[in-house]
Amino acid sequence: MLAQDCPSKQDLQNSIQQAHKLLSAQEASYLQSLRTLRKKLNLLHNSVARLPAKAKNSTCPNLDTPVNGKKLGKILFPGHEVHFLCDVGFELEGSETRQCKDSLSWSGQQPVCKDIDECLSSPCANGGTCTDEVNGFSCVCAKGWAGPDCQAPTPTFFVTTANTSPVSAGAAAASSFPLTHTSAFTRPSRCSQVQGTTHCTCEPGFTISGRDNSVCTDIDECKLFHNGQAGRLCLHTCVNTAGGYRCTCPAGYNVTRDGRNCKDIDECSTRQNNCTHEQLCINTYGGFQCVKVECPQIRNATYVKTSSLRCERNPCLVDSRTCSQAPNSVSFHYMSVVSNLSAPRVMFRVSAVRMIGDTLRFALLGSRGRRHFTVQRSDRQTGELLLTSPVQGPATLDAEVEMSELERRELLGRYITKITIFVSPYEF
Q1: Rg for the chain (alpha carbons), in Å?
Q2: Among 259, 253, 236, which Cα is nearest to 137's?
Q3: In CA terms, which of 9, 24, 38, 227 is 20 to 30 Å from 56?
Q4: What is the value of pTM for the model shown?
């Protein structure tokens, strides 16, 4: 072996010094990571210490569902939201969304669904008097006018004709002319002869017809008052009847007390559904949906249900990068809306109750929701899911909103909210 093949003492010392430098750099990096982690833990400890003392698993008090309205959201833990909607014909007064605060009290004011006073727009024409009703109005028409909004002249229910048969002058003789009943929609007129003049009349809902004015024909109110100034005669379907009409509603609705409008049946609260114990019943306009919430399955990450609509990630192994990048939590929310809802409109809000990092980012995941939705920021800690265009039902829309928390551009956590919106086939 030649002498130049063996490293010299100086070469060995240089190699050992380089190894010392590398070890020192690794130690410094490790210590810096420990200091950063200790700083974050101290921030978390201080934020928790500032919270008011409360019992474990404490929740905000349950909120009442407004009369003539709906409440969306059942989780009462801090940071969660409850949304309110009013039935057709009612307007919301108060907070549309209320959030459970750390103090175990709700933000905003308790909403109330108040009946819309349809008479404010003066819908009764030609001197008619308007009376406001639940989810509608009625008109008392002036003499000579008829119809739901008093727009149509009163149909002629009687005629007077000169008698062609000889009658003694000054006589007060009277006679009637019966006619054979032909169908439910045509009836004989009631004619009488008084002092040489024939008077023919019809029952309400019928009008004089026929060459000799002896027939009363039913008035088809559904055609006559189909598109009045005050709106359609019936919210859904008008069925003409002999001497009148009646309104019908599609399956999943009941006719309201005014006989013209439709009110959704809540199959979930009235137990008119076939959902199993493993499923949640979601009431929709005109029906219901049975949904089963399942936690995501991600490699090297496991989840546990902390409520019926929320899954939390279990602690990760120290060296599991796949687990640490998986969502910290996945929440599920379900909403019901009518068809052709006006847009743009805020459908849902996602916010952080308290922040550990220095930045929050909001994003819309996937491609299914990008056709109808976008995400915008309303303030530093809140993102909003915005409906960008009206949707013709029936349809089911899905959107996933991601909230990411960062510190110095380093990811601290991801929180996913999956929102499913059921769109009714009808605009009510």
Answers
A1: 37
A2: 259
A3: 38
A4: 0.59
